[in-house]
Amino acid sequence: xxxxxxxxxxxxxxxxxxxxxxxxxxxxxxxxxxxxxxxxxxxxxxxxxxxxxxxxxxxxxxxxxxxxxxxxxxxxxxxxxxxxxxxxxxxxxxxxxxxxxxxxxxxxxxxxxxxxxxxxxx
Length: 122
Hints:
about 120 residues; mainly beta; five-stranded antiparallel β-sheet; two-stranded antiparallel ribbon; extended
């Protein structure tokens, strides 16, 4: 493996880690990422973000919503400016390791358990 490793997957590619956690990419230009309690779907008709729990969107700069039509629905109420602005909390993933290769002492393809994922910075 080098600095660019293309994968020709045919009609679709799926990766599953544990029960219901993973992603699927299909040739019809659909990407679905899920952890079983929240998901992001990117389709030719739009982007859909769903969460069984809370969904927070924050930005260190301007957060802009615009569209031909903007709809806001809430049950039972919708509150505007109900709390102070919140700084973004961006989750990071560790740097990629050198994949090693033939004759290298670096172990190629050995997993880190959690993929090197780190919690949100803050």
